[in-house]
Every structure is written in structure tokens, then in C-alpha cells.
Specification:
Layout lengths: L2 H15 L2 H16 L9 E4 L2 E3 L8 H22 L5 H18 L5 H5 L2 H12 L7 E2 H24 L1
Antiparallel strand pairs: 1-2, 2-3
């Protein structure tokens, strides 16, 4: 799942707790729940006509770097926008950070190998991977449905955060 969904939903969940520490923990747990849902992590790789596969654990192609940079930029703008409009911005930010942290530790290609080579990193990667939904091969319609789910999570998270 893209960083935007994790951070926005994590921030909304954090706000629901009303406490920065609980918000961080709830956001962290929300990451695992969201990772269990069908989703797209970047640009899926075409394996056959109208069939695609995930490229999560291999080297990132240029399209995934571009998607990631756009996602981080858009996420930053949305998080700042929401944080400036909620009653408890610290709680929101703690939830958003907690929800983003698993991917920031375990998936960023610049340090993921170093992180995973540590005892904690190896243990965490095993847990993070165990709950992560994997597309072994998906039809294009499944990917469209997954992207729609991600959009609904983003819009829902923004709505829930701003309505209070």
C-alpha cells in the first residue's frame, strides 16, 4: 500500500484515540491491517497480457521510484493540510508517523538491506512480510479494484480526520 493510505488512515486512527502514544501504537497496528488488504505498492510488472505481478521484494524499477517520490510529496502535503486543521495535530501526526514507520524502516531501498541485516530488522521484516498481501498474479480488473479501495481509504481517512 502506498504511504499516503498508511499515513492518512493512521492519522485518523490516531485522532480516534485522543492520545499521542496510543495514536502512534494504533497507527502502527493499522499499518499491518491495511497491508493485509488487496492493494498496489507501486507500478505492477506485466507478466502476460492483462496479468500483472508485484515487484515488492526485488530491486525497484524507475517507475516505482517515480511513484514513490510522487506519493511521498502528495502525502506530505495532505498530512500538513490535515494537521493544520484538526484540534489535536500532535495526535494526528503521531498516528500518521506510526502507520508510516513499518515501510520507512523495512522497504526504503537506500537502507532496507542494512536494516534487515540486524537482528531486530530481520525479525521485523519477517513479521511485516507475513501479514503483507501479495499478488502472485492479478488481472487488470483486480488491480483497478485495489486502487479504488486505496482511493476510498484515502478519501475516508481525510474525511474522518477533518469532520471532528
Amino acid at each position: 500500500m502506498l504511504l499516503s493510505q498508511h499515513a492518512i488512515v493512521g492519522g485518523a486512527v490516531g485522532l480516534a484515540t485522543g492520545n499521542p502514544v496510543l495514536g502512534f501504537l494504533a497507527g502502527f497496528l493499522s499499518h499491518q491491517v491495511l497491508d493485509m488488504m488487496p492493494h498496489v505498492d507501486g507500478a505492477p510488472e506485466k507478466v502476460r497480457p492483462r496479468r500483472y505481478s508485484s515487484v515488492v521484494d526485488r530491486e525497484w524499477p524507475l517507475s516505482t521510484y517515480i511513484t514513490s517520490y510522487i506519493d511521498v510529496t502528495v502525502t506530505t502535503v495532505i498530512i500538513i493540510f490535515i494537521a493544520l486543521r484538526v484540534n489535536e495535530p500532535l495526535v494526528f501526526l503521531c498516528g500518521a508517523f506510526g502507520a508510516s514507520l513499518p515501510d520507512l524502516m523495512d522497504n526504503v531501498p537506500f537502507w532496507k538491506k542494512c536494516f534487515r541485516s540486524t537482528k531486530f530488522g530481520s525479525w521485523f521484516h519477517g513479521i511485516h512480510s507475513k501479514f503483507h498481501f501479495r499478488w502472485h498474479e492479478a488481472h487488470v480488473y483486480q488491480l483497478i479494484l485495489a486502487v479504488c479501495l486505496q482511493l476510498m481509504l484515502t478519501i475516508g481517512g481525510i474525511w474522518v480526520s477533518l469532520r471532528g
